[in-house]
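Is GN1 placement plausible here? Inputs below.
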Amino acid sequence: METIDTASILSHFEMLGVVRDVKPLGNGLINDTYRVVTDGSTTPDYVLQRINNAIFRDVDLLQHNIEVVTAHQRRKLEALGVDDIDRKVLQFIKTRAGKTYYCDNDERYWRVMVFIPDSFTHEAVTPESAYDAGKAFGDFERMLVDVPEKLGETIPDFHNMELRMRQLVEAVENDEVGRRHEVLDIISELERDAHEMCQAERLFREGKLPKRICHCDTKVNNMLFDRDGKVLCVIDLDTVMPSFIFSDYGDFLRTGANFTAEDDPDISCVGFNEDIFKSFTIGYLESAHSFLKPIEIDLLPYAVALFPFMQCARFLTDYINGDTYYKIKYATHNLDRTRNQLALYRDVRNHYAMMEEFIRKC
Ligand code: GN1
Ligand code: MG
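Reply from A.M.:
I modeled the complex. Tokens:
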């Protein structure tokens, strides 16, 4: 394991207090995250994060997006007279050079945020918290409809299903580590449905479907809750960028409405939880219906299928490539994730009629 001199990294940031401890935080698959504990009760704790710049290649653009978005959120909440704003918007600490990130001598990129006290992440939701989560993501998107500048894409074509299929085909052709023969059945199932699942890109090219700023990584664990299980705020803002608005809806249900974790190797536990779907949908549409176009609402059930499908293709691509993208804990971790997401995708497809009917009623 690499050794990291956190004291030296932190010394570049305008932080308060004396650092007592630095320990790993959260379960993100891309960045490395630590909680920085400071001495005494008058100074905040902090979150130190190493931004994975093999994946986020333009850290300057990424941090600029985040600064624009959090400043915009803060202004909106202030205008609404909301209390406790520091618990509802992330706050980044500047370096002594006035930036919100620091690049060390080994070209590793770091940033520091204030840790929101008494906040928690969860890996699963209940029907009650799913309703709150729906409202929170709808509010998040609604707040960002009038961001005063055009944001760049921190990962170009991030949720472009056509690109994800091309990346899969390329991985299969190269078969870098000789795993193709293990997954032929999954590849052909994905290829069978690819045309249908790529419909968003076609609608976009035809000018029928817009892109707007959305979060693009609405996993359940990318949200902070307070002690009573109420949503405080949305975190992990690296992927906030223009995309299809239904991404946030579909991607949340991918983790929130799966009966089990996205990497549960026992696929008999995988399935689409209708109760979570219903509460999340009610909450989401309560805050998002005012700005969604009819086509964006019509595509919601499609998005619920698209995200496990896309995630299945992405995990599978990474497995075939020899696990170069997602953090893994054991050799077949990405394969287990792939099968899990495929099982969820299949089950979601059996719920199309129910979803359409429910969304119409909402
Ligand atoms: C990654 O960083 P994390 O764990 O919140 C990934 C998402 C995937 C997710 C799958 C930048 O999110 O797109 O849906 O893993 N983020 C990136 O669990 O690729
Ligand atoms: Mg995360």
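Short version: The pocket of GN1 (ligand 1) is lined by residues 28-30, 55, 217, 219, 222, 236, 239, 262, 311 (CB under 6 Å).
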